[in-house]
Design a protein that fits this description.
Keywords: Cytoplasm, Magnesium, Metal-binding, Methyltransferase, Pantothenate biosynthesis, Transferase. It is built from 11 helices and 8 strands. By secondary structure, the chain is of the alpha/beta class. The protein folds into 2 domains: 13-241, Phosphoenolpyruvate-binding domains (TIM Barrel, Alpha-Beta Barrel), CATH 3.20.20; 245-272. The chain has an 8-stranded parallel barrel, surrounded by 7 helices. Helix 6 (129-137) links the parallel strand 4 (119-121) and strand 5. The structure holds 3-methyl-2-oxobutanoic acid. 3-methyl-2-oxobutanoic acid is lined by residues 30, 49, 51-53, 91, 188, 190, 211, 221, 223.
């Protein structure tokens, strides 16, 4: 049974702001392909993020940097074809918006036109302010992303918790306010202290969606392959696994292998 406070036929950026003011938490998961997105959407998840984490979980890269705009559009279009209710947010990949606002707008337009996604997400604060504003001016909804920003991994050097020190926490608070003022409809906070994330969520009217940011925010996001246990070697403290698919799938594949080798598959009923 759903614990939603209000039924939404279709989630929009406005629905998310309404959820925050009604005290309803927002559920968000990643998806990168049609079949997964169909299940995630059918389960009533509010927001589907076509994250650049596809670079890690779909393509096997070590970081999110290599994924291209064309590849993000391919993943996003596959997700959009499956979705009936969720809001689909698509990451602008590394290299598609950092150089200047015009390029950022061109990339965002390509995502909206070629994938049918409903909004874009960009990593960063004041450094990307002009790009965020230009995209918003074109009528494209923008979700911000602060805290651990994986596209800057080579600047920071590690994936550890961000904004533990006063100066970084202050910058994060200023950036969050700037993104709200610029017109972003929501903000992701990744891997920051729970107390700081709660403070930011309480200071903004737009929803703050956390990953490794505690329970004082307005919603939660996880990478779907992590929460269903397909990626069994990634074990951060913030991750709750709802399934152990790595082991379940391994058992199924081993059983299939044995059934084929022994001649047990297909049976008389499984042939024409
Ligand atoms: O790419 C992604 O999956 C993300 C989430 C971790 C928020 O940005």
């Amino acid at each position: 049974m759903s614990v939603a406070k209000k039924e939404y036929k279709r989630i929009t950026t406005k629905s998310l702001v309404e959820m925050k003011s009604n005290g309803e938490k927002i559920s968000m998961l990643t998806s990168y392909d049609f079949s997964m997105a169909k299940i995630v959407d059918g389960a009533g998840i509010d927001v589907i993020l076509v994250g650049d984490s596809a670079s890690n979980v779909m393509a096997g890269h070590e970081t999110t940097l290599p994924i291209t705009l064309d590849q993000m559009i391919y993943h996003a279009a596959s997700v959009v074809r499956a979705v009936e209710r969720a809001l689909v947010v698509v990451d602008l990949p590394f290299g598609s918006y950092q150089s200047d606002p015009k390029e950022a707008l061109r990339s965002a337009i390509r995502i909206m036109k070629e994938s049918g996604g409903h909004a874009v997400k960009l990593e960063g604060g004041k450094e990307i302010k002009d790009s965020v504003k230009r995209i918003l001016n074109a009528g494209i909804p923008v979700m911000g992303h602060l805290g651990l920003t994986p596209q800057s991994i080579y600047k920071f050097g590690t994936y550890t918790v961000r904004a533990k020190e006063e100066a970084e926490a202050e910058k994060l608070k200023t950036d969050a306010l700037m993104l709200e003022k610029a017109g972003c409809f929501a903000l992701v906070l990744e891997k920051v202290p729970a107390k700081l994330a709660k403070e930011v969520a309480e200071s903004l009217t737009i929803p703050v969606i956390g990953i490794g940011a505690g329970n004082g925010v307005d919603g939660q996001v996880l990478v779907v392959h992590d929460m269903i246990g397909m990626t069994h070697e990634f074990n951060p403290r913030f991750l709750r696994r709802y399934l152990d698919l790595y082991h379940e799938m391994t058992k199924a594949f081993e059983q299939y292998r044995d059934d084929v080798k022994s001649g047990n598959f297909p049976s008389d009923e499984e042939q024409y």
